[in-house]
Amino acid sequence: MAWKYKTATLFFVLTVFLLAPPGIKIVNSASASINIGYVVFASASACGLLPSSFAANVLSDAPWYCPINGQIYTAWANDLPFVLFVVLLAFMIASIIFMVGVALRDNKIRNFGIGELYEATASAIIVVFFLYVCAIVFGITPAILVGAINPYPVAFNLILSTINSAEAVYQSIFGVYLTDMFYVSINTQLSVYGLNLNGISSTITSIYTLYLEVFVIQPSAVIATFLVDGIAALYSEYYLIVFFAVASIPAFVIPGVVLRAILPTRALGGVLMAIGIGFYLVMPTMFAVAYYFTAPQILHQLATANSQLNRWGTGSGAETNGLSPSAPLPLALQSVQSALSSFWLMILFYPVLIIAVAYAFISQLANFLGGASNISGRIRSFI
Question: Do residues 139 and 69 lie in contact, with contact meaning Cβ atoms separated by under 8 Å?
Answer without folding.
Answer: yes
